[in-house]
Design a protein that fits this description.
Number of strands: 22
Shape: globular
Distance between the termini: 34 Å
Low-confidence stretches: none
Radius of gyration: 22 Å
Strand content: 15-25%
Mean pLDDT: 94
Largest sheet: 7 strands, mixed
């Protein structure tokens, strides 16, 4: 089979389709003060910080009308679209909620032990934990449970939640974001109206916070419309994760590198696995693989099933039961792939929607929380100054880059790109970058779009699934 380049076969959709002018008026418009798109860590961090700041400044609350803060989320309830199992640096979380301990928010406890293995098909070799993988002192959470807890706090502080609601269109008038248009409800798969049909509504706001998570279509539309795209393309990984009820408690965080991925530079297969303990009787296991690989037969889901057959992994999971499955994309472009500006008139970009993920550490929750908090600070300052057009644009962007979000991402600004040279060369270069704080080898290593990477059939084959320990994709999606 000859190589094909995915970018030669673009999907029949453009980001411009998600930008429109407001068309409703009067009673057909829902007016809110601050509109947050996405009920994840970034959106809820913003809502909680805003709720507390507005409670201390009632004159600002009065500016925002009957619904000062509204959160639009597509899930039936908060937490339904978060994949459980996450190791979280709790610095931002404890600043956001200083009156609550991590355990009160659902932590399974701090990380006390960790191990890193380089894997072969049947063997594994433990190596000293590389600095990016150091997690001692961080806490293990079920991310879905943490989000539910944060949602409860946000609602206690006055945020109004609109669940099962999609934000379909970003509304822009005279160069300023003024809100969103939500999607219709009650249509069948052909688009025909059902008996419970409800048309979408326009929600107008003074500020809109785009915290949709990875590959949020409104965020991507805003980046294109306002010409925020950086010189270095955003690139992505696909992560597949399972939650297991285990027969024996796991006492450490585990990361693996190598097999079932191929390490040669010509394959461009970058990624690794993680296993996190979730209390005495549960653990989660996941595999993350960059989407700029060259093998059209590569299936991250199936690679995870094969990984579970490795003796090292089987000894952890065998005798247990899978209780959940999920998959998501992860922005991996890093510092050079952040938007040129993180705010435009009327709107701000926060969390995964803007690519705020530290790829070497596989961490983004604390950055999302921090970005939401800084977005709230900038909005509050803007309201106090009466500057709807410019205050957020200046203060939020600069605050992100001055925070641990900008500092950490700048330190690892070229690490993801080194692995285009293969696992071993990439590991050596990334170690030098870590030791020198990114100064050596220096420079600006740019990403090319994943879709411009030619792919061909690599002839991969996968072990047959037994339905009790390893699973096919259909039954896995059913368990999501």
């Amino acid at each position: 089979m000859s190589a094909a380049t995915p970018s030669e076969f673009p999907p029949p959709v453009t980001s411009g389709e998600f930008i429109d002018e407001p068309r409703a008026s009067g009673d057909d418009v829902i007016e809110v003060g601050i509109l947050i798109i996405g009920g994840g860590a970034a959106g809820l961090g913003c809502a909680i910080r805003l709720g507390r700041q507005l409670a201390e400044q009632p004159e600002l609350m009065d500016q925002l009308g009957e619904v000062p803060i509204a959160i639009v989320d597509k899930g039936r309830s908060l937490g339904m679209h978060q994949l459980s199992g996450a190791v979280v640096d709790t610095t931002a979380l404890q600043e956001l909620l200083p009156d609550r301990t991590p355990e009160e928010l659902g932590s399974f406890g701090p990380v006390r032990k960790e191990a890193v293995y380089v894997m072969g098909r049947r063997r594994s070799m433990r190596i000293p934990t590389p600095p990016p993988f150091h997690n001692k002192g961080n806490h293990v959470f079920s991310l879905s449970q943490l989000v539910r807890q944060l949602g409860d706090v946000a609602e206690e502080l006055g945020a109004f939640l609109l669940p099962e609601t999609t934000a379909d269109m970003l509304l822009v008038r005279d160069g300023r974001v003024v809100g969103v248009r939500t999607g219709d409800k009650g249509r069948d798969r052909d688009g025909s109206e059902l008996g419970n049909f409800e048309p979408g509504a326009e929600i107008h706001a003074k500020y809109t916070v785009l915290a949709e998570g990875t590959q949020g279509h409104l965020s991507m539309a805003a980046i294109d419309h306002f010409e925020l795209a950086p010189e270095s393309a955003q690139v992505w990984a696909l992560g597949v994760k399972e939650t297991w009820k285990v027969a024996r408690p796991l006492d450490r965080v585990i990361h693996t590198m190598g097999w079932p991925l191929r390490t040669g530079a010509r394959h461009r297969e970058f990624g690794g696995s993680f296993i996190y303990p979730m209390g005495e009787d549960k653990a989660c296991i996941g595999l993350v693989v960059g989407l700029d690989h060259r093998d059209a037969s590569l299936s991250v889901h199936d690679l995870l099933q094969d990984l579970k057959l490795h003796p090292r992994i089987r000894s952890i999971l065998e005798g247990g039961e899978r209780v959940g499955w999920g998959a998501k994309t992860i922005p991996e472009g890093g510092y050079w792939s952040l938007p040129r500006r993180l705010a435009v008139p009327g709107a701000l970009l926060a969390g995964d929607a803007a690519g705020m993920v530290n790829v070497p550490r596989l961490k983004g929750v604390q950055y999302a929380l921090r970005a939401g908090m800084l977005a709230a600070d900038s909005i509050t300052a803007s309201l106090a100054a009466g500057e709807l057009e410019t205050a957020c644009l200046d203060s939020y962007h600069d605050a992100i880059h001055a925070s641990e979000v900008g500092r950490d991402l700048y330190r690892v600004r070229n690490m993801r790109q080194t692995f285009h040279r293969g696992f071993f060369m990439g590991g050596a270069l990334s170690s030098m970058m870590d030791i020198t704080g990114g100064r050596f080898p220096g420079g600006k290593w740019l990403n090319r779009p994943d879709a411009e990477q030619p792919v061909e059939d690599g002839g991969r084959s996968y072990a047959e699934r037994d339905g009790s320990y390893t699973f096919d994709k259909l039954s896995s999606v059913f368990a999501s």
